[in-house]
Amino acid sequence: MSAAVVAEPHPHSIEVVPLSAHIGAEIRGVDLARPLSPQQIAAIRAALLKWRVMFFREQFLSHEQHIAFSAQFGELTPGHPVFGHVDGYPQVYSIAKYRKATRFAGQSLLRPWTGWHTDVTAAVNPPYASILRGVTIPPYGGDTQWTNLVIAYEKLSAPLRAFVDGLRGVHRFAAPAGTSGTDVFDKAVEQHTLIAEHPLVRVHPETGERALYVSPSFLKEIVGVSPRESQVLLELLWEHVTRPEFTVRFKWEAGSVAFWDNRSTAHLAPSDIFDLEFDRQLYRTTLVGDVPVGPDGRASIALQGSPVGAAAAVALN
Ligand code: SIN
């Protein structure tokens, strides 16, 4: 019997497996714990621009490896500009089940777009990408969903596209009116209020595509229209961007990593985990972003708070 010749996979080749029509691909054939080759970095960057969110399986990274992987794609921000970072790791943010102690449960107005957001859009330069790794994952429940804001823009009617092209909105990360600022969450938010005015349509700095930049949880009002006009128009746009055909839903496992383009997506953290007794723990890094620009060339402006810069570097061994 002749020995079978098994071809070794090319060390630089990665496989991109699309998961839905408009967004999301699983990336196979790469070990994120090791330094990537220039070819692998280029392939992952290309997949990020095309598929908006990429998923990797069975990548059991330490915090150090998570940071080192992320740093190959840009400068890391502090873990979170308001809620801080994991002890000893200024660039890592803990996404634990009870991080906000479900303080809004039962109080908020639950609409289909409740909880959808793009990371830190209350900053004048929201992170360009986020890299989230799963460590403790429930056996069921706890999926995350992402939506493609470029296809959402393209699927608006032409008159509505022309209308929203000229609009701007205020994104706010502030303690809700009437809260006392006495608990840890309110205190952190009070001390780090972030407010920015962004275009409602953002031109992607790498591809030139237009994205409907309407982060539902942070975008509070449209500039220059009446409060009622703002509310009705935003609800129309939020309903539109969260249409299921623009989305992908990811089932986490321990060792899964999601890496998304924060300039052209919004995502929804799960709330079903609060109906289950299982724990859930993920860790996130984010990469320093640029200041968004609208189709008219006007850049976003900070109304309160500073741009999110790079986290202080720490030695990684
Ligand atoms: C996030 O909003 O970055 C976290 C998403 C999740 O908890 O699934």
UniProtKB/TrEMBL annotation:
Instruction: Specify the TauD/TfdA-like domain's residue ranges.
Output: 16-269
Matching Gene3D superfamilies: Clavaminate synthase-like (3.60.130.10)
Q: Which Gene Ontology cellular-component terms appear in the entry?
A: cytoplasm
Name its co-factor(s). Answer: Fe(2+)
Q: Which InterPro entries match?
A: AtsK-like, TauD-like_sf, TauD/TfdA-like
Q: Does the keyword Cell membrane belong to this entry? A: no
Task: Give one GO term, molecular function aspect.
Answer: metal ion binding
Alphabetically ordered keywords of this record: Dioxygenase, Iron, Metal-binding, Oxidoreductase
Q: Which family does it belong to?
A: Belongs to the TfdA dioxygenase family.
Q: What is the protein name stated in its UniProt record?
A: Taurine dioxygenase
Q: Which organism is it from?
A: Paraburkholderia caballeronis
- High-level lineage: Bacteria, Pseudomonadati, Pseudomonadota, Betaproteobacteria, Burkholderiales
